[in-house]
Amino acid sequence: MTIICRCEDVSEEEIMKAIEEGCRTLDELKHRLRLGMGPCQGRTCLPLAARILARETGQTMADVQMQTSRPPAVPVALGLLAGDSRD
Amino acid sequence: MIAVIERADVAIVGGGINGCALAYELSRRGAEVAVVERRSLTSGATGRCGAGVRQQWSARENVTLAMQSVEIFEQLSQDLGADIGFRQGGYLIAVHDEEDLRQAEKNVAMQRSLGLEVDILSPHEVTEIVPILDVEGMRAIGATFCPTDGHADPFKTTYAYAEAARRQGAHFYRFTTVTDILTDQGSVTGVRTDRGDLSAPVVVNAAGAWSKQIAAMAGVEVPNVPYKKEIIVTERMARVFDAMVISFRDGIYFSQQDEGQVLGGIPPPETVTGYHLEPTFSFLQHMAATLARYAPVLSHINVIRQWTGFYDVTPDARPILGPVEGLEGFIQCHGFSGHGFMLAPMVARLLADLIVDGAGSPILESLNLARFEDMDIEQEHSVVG
Ligand SMILES: Cc1cc2nc3c(=O)[nH]c(=O)nc-3n(C[C@H](O)[C@H](O)[C@H](O)COP(=O)(O)OP(=O)(O)OC[C@H]3O[C@@H](n4cnc5c(N)ncnc54)[C@H](O)[C@@H]3O)c2cc1C
Ligand code: FES
User: For domain B10-48+155-223+316-372, which architecture applies?
Assistant: First the structure.
């Protein structure tokens, strides 16, 4: 069994099953499996999952590519952000 | 190209929590249902929300609806045959001063009269329930607390409803956009989609912040306005609190989720209406500063993600439910104004009873679109985020 998402413990088999059940986008895989929602925010697993999705659904990599980027791009401490503000 | 089925008893526009819960309740009553969703299920507000479930409201109907929903939530994993992640850690609502306290006392008396278990807490009791709170930093003198409030997982809940509905024969058309509402002589006859027409004598508008457009397709005007809302999530940490903490004055809400991350929001410093999805740095700073003031120990925790979604806001911050004057079969289910996740289980039952059995109810009456024609509407004041 190949683990694709280490943070959320999602295997290739689970991804294949979700695709078989109708998932067509990375978003749907995230919503169903929490794939990419872990501490690393999908930096390693989402590109891998995109490749599986493209292969299994006959889409191009561009079709399944990542949607909205959600800053901050790197984790940043609340206190640091708070310090910048005059609240 | 006709890729959708040609007819159904009820066509539902929108595959969020409300569309999916209603598909479940309708198909359970034997109706043939088709849900049409432009993208994937949960792609609207549902997949972006805090999914808090609160019964402490200032408007009587909201308390009643939320209490009935909680009763359903408590059984829902069992009923749907899948875990929806419902946890009852309570909602702790900050009381900031004497004026707040008077309002809180009024709310609590009303809520108790409806049978809700809710208390007013001293500062000491506040930190007993959520040890990381700094009551002084919160500028609070106490709080109200209802232990049966809580939250669920919005993805799991929506998919659990959808799967159960599918087992009962409901059809789901994802990546299918409704482009028009078909009508004939004062009655709806179906929907037009980019994949063909679907005829149905009943069409439900459950399109969230886009319901205004769907209504306009049928020539119906609704007063809803979309407001952009922002939300953050932190990295995971050991479980330290179970309650959702909120303040009406600061507009903040935050809780710790099942996996240990803290999730929360606050109104962005600049109010933004219209369909803008960009996250802002000013929100992030404002949220971080307020959260650090409420719970200083969180200063060391990293924010890992920030995103946005829409509140679909009505003039009285209460939803618009039920039929409309002059167009038979066109049912409204929107305008949830930032609390449509928690109300969905009960709203779905009320609307399913109405659609299948023609059974109305005083609560549906009071939430009909027609109320905006009158002047004396009861405004819900207890809104955050
Ligand atoms: C940041 C944030 C935090 C929130 N926190 C809470 C909370 O703690 N508790 C709570 O109860 N509520 C909360 N809410 C509110 C809650 O998310 C919503 O009220 C609820 O999810 C609405 O569900 P819905 O199914 O009615 O609409 P949505 O989930 O928005 O679904 C509507 C669907 O309609 C689809 N659609 C639109 N136009 C078309 C078309 N032309 N054809 C086909 N489909 C279409 C959309 O793609 C969308 O999927 C929050 C909202 C936000 C944004
Ligand atoms: S590996 Fe998937 S979120 Fe980190």
Answer: 3-Layer(bba) Sandwich (3.50)
